Amino acid sequence: MANERSNDRLDRVVAEARRARDQREQGYREKALKMYPWVCGRCAREFTRANLHELTVHHRDHNHDNNPPDGSNWELLCLYCHDNEHSRYIDATADERGQEKVTTHNPFADLADLLKGKS
């Protein structure tokens, strides 16, 4: 019973945090869409109302709480360029923290065995 109440409380806290995030995002997204042309800042793909949901607001300093009214920390990026930007940022900050990049997949691991079988 106590565990159930704890879970309900946690669910409410998480739901409220998500609502607050969505409200914050909606505010700066609407402002950015009014300020800037509906074009991806990286690949130059153009957007219309039909596909506008694929255009995102990227925070240049990666701080989603830094939303100056002049929009100087924002740029509009398509979903793909936005994902790429965040992947590059994660890779760069991993290097700065001294974390070693680890490759977990070797596509040529069994190539020698495969070639031996064909000879």
CATH topology: His-Me finger endonuclease fold
- By DSSP (H or I, 4+ residues per run), the number of helices equals 3
CATH architecture name: 3-Layer(aba) Sandwich
Give the radius of gyration: 22 Å
Q: How much of the residues is beta strand, in percent? A: 5-15%
* Class based on secondary structure composition and strand pairing: mainly alpha
| pLDDT averaged residue by residue | 85
Task: State the low-pLDDT regions, or none.
Answer: none
Q: H/E order of the elements?
A: HEEHH
Largest sheet: 2 strands, antiparallel
Helix content: 40-55%
Domain count = 1
Oligomeric state of the chains? single chain
Q: What topology, given as strand order, has the largest sheet?
A: 1-2
Terminal residue distance: 68 Å
What top-tier CATH class fits best? Alpha Beta
Cα shape: extended
Number of strands: 2
